[in-house]
Amino acid sequence: MPAQFISLLDDFLSLIYPRLCYACGNSLYFNESVICNRCLATLPLTNSHLSKDNPVARAFWGRIPIEGAAARYYFRKGGPVQRLLHNLKYNHAPEIGIFIGQIYGKELLQGEAFRSVDLIIPIPLHLEKLKKRGYNQSAMFGQGLSQSMKIPIDEDSLYRTYYTDTQTRKSREERWENVKFVFTLKENADLEGKHILLVDDVITTGSTIEACANKLMEKKGVRISVAAIAFPSSTF
Ligand SMILES: [Zn+2]
């Protein structure tokens, strides 16, 4: 089938088929978007933004100094939150990141640690990957946070220098080796003395965040907080 025809067919089908919730796959009502109200009410919240000593923060203990660390949801393999993350990353649905960021930003401001954040920096994607995917899923989440927290987002100062292989099926040490030297700061990056909120779609081993934080902390007086969409419920 010619590509143009497939694209036309896609447009046509999206007119007759209803929009679906990216978490459960059920049809959305006209007043819902991205995630249905039922999922919004039932997906497992961590409430980690309300306490300094929480599972997300503990993942970084002894590794990097963190002001505050939080993730909105717990995720389990095969569960609706994982489906949400998968759609955000691989299914051309950047709106998922923006949507959750907009909701989560308001909640983060309830946590003391996040009120002094000056700047949001998303974990960068390598340029090749960015071109292939069309967007950086962490930056989408960061843009949503930026809107609701009314804090600027900086997508330029930190970038990824080398292409890294997919992180799956690697041990914690191997992953660390893999990301250790791949982040670089732009010359003249104006970050001194800033409290930076590093944002990622998901935190698993924390090694990517750690590598970015170490890079950012080369600037004098930088403090780091961390926010993600999801955190695994059974890791650590
Ligand atoms: Zn749903």
* Record field, number of beta strands: 6
Principal-axis shape equals globular
Pick out the low-confidence regions.
none
Strand order of the largest sheet: 1-6-5-2
CATH architecture of the largest domain: 3-Layer(aba) Sandwich
Distance between the termini: 48 Å
Rg over CA atoms = 18 Å
Class from helix and strand fractions: alpha/beta
CATH topology of the largest domain: Rossmann fold
What does this structure look like?
This protein has 236 residues and is α/β, with parallel strands linked by helices. It folds into two domains: 1-42, no CATH class; 44-232, Rossmann fold (3-Layer(aba) Sandwich), CATH 3.40.50. It is 37% helix and 15% strand. The chain contains nine helices and six strands; from the N terminus they run αααβααβααβαββαβ. It has a four-stranded parallel β-sheet, sandwiched between helices. The protein has a two-stranded antiparallel sheet with strand order 3-4. α5 runs parallel beside α7 (137-149). The chain is globular, with a radius of gyration of 18 Å. The model has no long low-confidence stretch (mean pLDDT 89). The structure holds zinc ion. Zinc ion (ZN) binds at residues 21, 23-24, 26, 35-36, 38-39.
